[in-house]
From TrEMBL:
Its EC number is 3.1.3.45. Catalyzes the hydrolysis of 3-deoxy-D-manno-octulosonate 8-phosphate (KDO 8-P) to 3-deoxy-D-manno-octulosonate (KDO) and inorganic phosphate. It comes from Oceanococcus atlanticus. Homotetramer. Its cofactor is Mg(2+). GO terms for biological process: lipopolysaccharide biosynthetic process. This is 3-deoxy-D-manno-octulosonate 8-phosphate phosphatase KdsC. The lineage of its organism: Bacteria, Pseudomonadati, Pseudomonadota, Gammaproteobacteria, Chromatiales.
């Protein structure tokens, strides 16, 4: 990690996560009654808790409805949870204003092109290994693991290594 990225990571006070393709593997399992299931990785949950223990606020801004993930995120202590948001930038701006931080003190973890406006607005941007090519190109760091398979934990560990 270069000195510039290390300095940006050490200044972070907020990390925002997309859900599908980041906290999950991006797959939707559909039941005959329209019910959807997604899975998360327990190491990613611990990564969220580790960030919080270090005083870093965690948030989720997702383009899809939460479904069963709302309770999981609540149990992990993610207090800022926004679902069904096609345009994530206005929520980002409201959130940093509410927290009283600058955009440079926030990071975004995303996997697809709707996340790119937040990549440009934040102080640091991360993605899983299997993110869309445009997202990988825009990220400051690409996790070795795929979304839903420990990438969030790897990103959390990287951020915390600067503390």
């Amino acid at each position: 990690m270069n000195d510039d990225l290390r300095a940006r990571l050490s200044a972070l006070k907020l990390v925002i996560f997309d859900i599908d393709g980041v906290l999950t593997d991006g797959k939707l399992y559909l039941g005959p009654d329209g019910q959807e299931w997604r899975s998360t990785h327990v190491r990613d949950g611990l990564g969220l808790k580790n960030l919080q223990a270090a005083g870093i606020v965690t948030a989720v801004i997702s383009g899809r409805p939460a479904g069963g993930l709302a309770q999981r995120l609540k149990s992990l202590g993610v207090t800022h949870r926004y679902f069904g948001q096609d345009d994530k930038l206005p929520l980002f701006e409201e959130l940093i204003e509410h927290l009283g931080i600058s955009p440079q003190q926030a990071a975004m973890v995303g996997d697809d092109t709707p996340d790119l406006p937040l990549f440009a607005a934040c102080g640091a941007a991360f993605c899983p290994a299997d993110a869309h090519a445009d997202v990988r190109a825009a990220a400051d760091w690409v996790a070795p693991s795929n979304g839903g398979h420990g990438a969030v934990r790897e990103i959390s560990d990287l951020i915390l290594s600067t503390r």
